[in-house]
Design goal:
By secondary structure, this protein is α/β, with parallel strands linked by helices. The protein folds into three domains: about 30 residues, no CATH class; about 180 residues, Rossmann fold, CATH 3.40.50.11720; about 180 residues, Glycogen Phosphorylase B (Rossmann fold). Strands 3-2-1-4-5-6-7 form a seven-stranded parallel sheet, sandwiched between helices. A seven-stranded parallel sheet has the order 10-11-9-8-12-13-14. Helix 6 crosses helix 7 and helix 12 runs parallel beside helix 13. It is globular, with a radius of gyration of 23 Å. The two termini are about 35 Å apart.
Length: about 425
């Protein structure tokens, strides 16, 4: 299997440039990595000393890394932090503004053996941290040859994953190589120990620490606060077309609510189409003047959403009907009950199921269920219980970051 994978990566590195001539997404993938080693070398030459490399697939995994980065930099101010992304959906919004605690942001090169070795050779990391699941064989092998301590954090495993199948030996080797694996839940620990992978512990989901920190010090938006003036407001986060198809009739039936809608993608055409279908006063945030009083405010930028939940009576988080549910913990961090489309693959989003058990999250499959849950949340006693449940659940799950860092700093010090 090692040889097959090596051959696959070698062939990919030669075939992708040809495919890129005809496929813009592949061309973009390659163009964004064309100067990767040059820029990385320049950064490393100007920033010597200890370095922690953190790899994430996309934006969701980066959110799980943020609290670890914050505590790591507080404990080790001299340590440089480099974050690599595989997906442009994570890299693009992150690179647009300075990221606290992060010294450099880069794409990960394709997992070709020579490129992986060059990447690690340039970085010379003191430690490496992979988040949740995005593991690459040749990069891990390059780290192993350099004796770099390597960790997997916020891991969440399911029995149906390749690691646990009869043909998953090659992929299990990547897990076996980890110096330690920190899991979100006990099920993941049990799955790993069944494979005789014992360097593992349940530490929880670092996103709870992240959302609690955001709720404690949210970005203030005085103009939005003044617009709301205490009126009941719903925040719709990361909305997709499938979500809006469900939500538009609800919005039309609730003129007493204000609505803040943050689409998954900043697509002006989609926002214009939704505004036309809604048939109520709407404004895009970039064009809104404070003297105007729309019923709906479209957020046509990136970076505001996590703090906007502070204004919500309840929230709706999108993605459940499509590629994947977005972060429902962000509103819950403020004690805000959250409604979401029932995920197609529920096992990939254990927080969705648990939020329903706790009584602060509500999955829906159609408009009837959406309307039913909104009606429940409009009942004072039911709403108060949901708010209390959200606060309790988040508080009970804090501390994953400290548990991870205690292990990381101890293990580095002992080497």
């Amino acid at each position: 299997m090692n040889v097959v994978y090596w051959l696959l990566m070698e062939l990919s590195s030669r075939i992708l440039p040809v495919l890129g001539i005809f496929m813009p997404k592949i061309r973009y993938f390659l163009d964004q990595r064309s100067c990767l080693f040059l820029t990385l070398s320049s950064f490393r030459a100007a920033h010597e000393g200890p370095l922690t490399w953190i790899h994430v697939a996309s934006l969701g995994e980066y959110e799980q890394a943020k609290p670890v980065i914050a505590v790591l930099k507080a404990q080790e101010p001299s340590t440089k932090v480099v974050v690599s992304f595989f997906s442009p959906s994570g890299y693009e919004p992150t690179i647009r503004k300075p990221q606290e605690g992060v010294d450099w942001i880069t794409y990960l090169p394709l997992d070709r053996k020579s490129w992986a070795e060059r990447f690690v050779e340039i970085l010379q990391p003191t430690r490496s941290i992979f988040v949740k699941y995005d593991l690459w064989y040749h990069h891990l092998q390059a780290l192993k040859r350099k004796n770099v301590p390597t960790y997997l954090i916020a891991a969440s495993f399911r029995p149906d994953q390749t690691y646990f199948s009869w043909y998953g030996g090659f992929f299990r080797k990547m897990l076996e190589q980890m110096d330690w694996i920190f899991t979100q839940n006990e099920v993941s620990v049990q799955l790993l120990t069944a494979l005789k992978i014992n360097k593992v512990s349940q530490t929880g989901d670092t996103r709870f620490d992240q959302v609690a920190a955001t709720a404690a010090q949210p970005i203030d938006f005085p103009a939005i606060r003044e617009w709301i003036k205490g009126r009941p407001t719903v925040v719709i986060g990361s909305a997709w077309e499938e979500d809006m198809n469900l939500l538009i009739p609800l919005i039309q039936s609730k003129p007493e609510f204000l609505w803040i809608i943050a689409p998954h993608a900043i697509d002006p055409a989609a926002m214009d189409r939704w505004a036309l279908a809604l048939r109520v006063p709407t404004k895009k945030y970039s064009q809104w003047k404070e003297v105007q009083d729309p019923q709906i405010l479209f957020i046509d930028n990136i970076g505001m959403l996590s703090s906007l939940y502070q204004f919500a009576y309840f929230a709706y988080v999108g993605g459940g009907f499509g590629k994947g549910l977005h972060n429902i913990l962000e509103p819950l961090g403020f004690g805000i009950p959250v409604i979401f489309g029932k995920p197609r693959r529920a096992s990939k989003f254990p927080e969705a199921a648990q939020s329903q058990v706790e009584g602060c999250g509500f999955a829906v499959t159609d408009f009837s269920e959406l309307q039913e849950n909104v009606n429940k949340l409009e009942q004072p006693e039911f709403y108060a219980n949901s708010v209390a449940s959200a606060h309790h659940w988040v508080k009970a799950n804090l501390g994953a970051t400290d548990r991870i860092l205690d292990h990381l700093t101890t293990s580095i010090a002992s080497k």
